[in-house]
Design brief:
Elements lengths: L8 H24 L13 E2 L2 E2 L3 H16 L4 H11 L11 H11 L4 H7 L8 H4 L2 H6 L3 H13 L5 H18 L4 H10 L4 H12 L5 H8 L5 H13 L6 H11 L5 H14 L13 H17 L3 H10 L1
Antiparallel strand pairs: 1-2
């Protein structure tokens, strides 16, 4: 029996599956740079009759397994496992350039703590934000969700803006999982954003909830930095959830920063699933077995890692 306040096994799977479905819808547009004209025109990336997955799905599955196997976040284990599992040579996955550089260094034997400082790319590692969903599923306290979401981002990048965005996203997802209304959850997430542009992006999304779909898209698409733009695209999409999952994913994809449509859509898919409005798979998913395995391990760990004190102690020592 799951403890009060913890997501049941079905919701764990729904959130990770929602992430994978969302990313499948975002991949074609991240690869092409085009924007879907309408919700009806939104199509997933299909390869050999299955919907493809990208960097967010792959990294979230690794993160879920590490949380399960360690009864908490272990940055060294995460960095090593991710460097081994990452399909960096596959152009469909669309890893962020800083993440690619970092993981290649780790593969060559550079310790994870040093590898981050040797990354040459100045781009933000946006996939470190999108992969954070398992943290919100595993931890039972907002403080730990916030801390460990930042920790998992900082395992592969030293960019504090990326880490703050990961924290805000995980806290948003956490409050949705615990039953908070969308606007309230956005406000909780904004309170965790120490960067003004990230905080404003979340608060603005909350204010857009009553606006027409086209207005939300126009506001969410305003030029800005990539990190706050990614969060704003996902948050504005979440605020459109009552219109339907396809409409929300369209907002995420159309408003996402250049090259990040798959990440915004992945984040949106997880957020929608947390509200009970999970996007439905358009076809068999390439990541289906990977998501099933990660979900089962994480769900078992939520009950198997007994005692919040144990998780807290491990989290504090990471």
């Amino acid at each position: 029996m799951f403890a009060p306040g913890l997501p049941d096994p079905g919701r764990v799977r729904d959130v990770l599956l929602g992430l994978a479905v969302g990313e499948a819808y975002g991949l074609p547009y991240a690869l092409s740079g085009e924007r879907p004209r309408s919700p009806a025109s939104l199509e997933p990336l299909m390869l050999g009759g299955v919907a493809a997955y990208g960097a967010a799905t792959e990294q979230a599955a690794v993160l879920a397994a590490v949380l399960a196997d360690s009864c908490g976040f272990n940055p060294d284990l995460f960095a090593r496992r991710l460097s081994a599992a990452a399909d960096l040579e596959n152009p469909i996955r669309l890893y962020s350039l800083p993440t690619v550089e970092d993981l290649m260094l780790i593969r060559r034997g550079v310790p994870w703590g040093r590898a981050r400082s040797l990354v040459a790319s100045l781009e933000p590692a946006l996939d470190a934000v999108a992969r954070a969903a398992p943290v919100a599923l595993f931890y039972t306290k907002e403080r730990l969700v916030a801390e460990m979401a930042m920790a998992q981002a900082l395992a592969t990048t030293l960019d504090t803006r990326t880490a703050v965005a990961a924290r805000a996203y995980a806290v948003l997802l956490y409050h949705l999982l615990h039953g908070a209304p969308v606007e309230e959850a956005l406000e909780h997430a904004a309170s965790q954003a120490s960067k003004a542009s990230i905080r404003e992006a979340l608060l603005q999304a909350a204010e857009l909830a009553a606006e027409p779909l086209e207005t939300r898209l126009r506001v969410a698409s305003r030029p800005g930095d990539a990190v706050s733009g990614l969060l704003q695209a996902a948050a504005a999409a979440l605020a459109s959830a009552e219109q339907g999952a396809r409409e929300a994913l369209w907002i995420a994809v159309a408003a996402a920063p250049e090259g990040a449509a798959h990440l915004a859509a992945a984040m949106t898919g997880a957020l929608l699933a947390a509200t009970g409005a999970a996007p439905q798979p358009p076809a068999p998913l390439e990541a289906e077995a990977m998501i099933a395995a990660a979900s089962e391990r994480l769900a078992s760990a939520i009950t198997g890692c007994r005692g919040l004190e144990r998780r807290e102690a491990l989290a504090g020592s990471s």
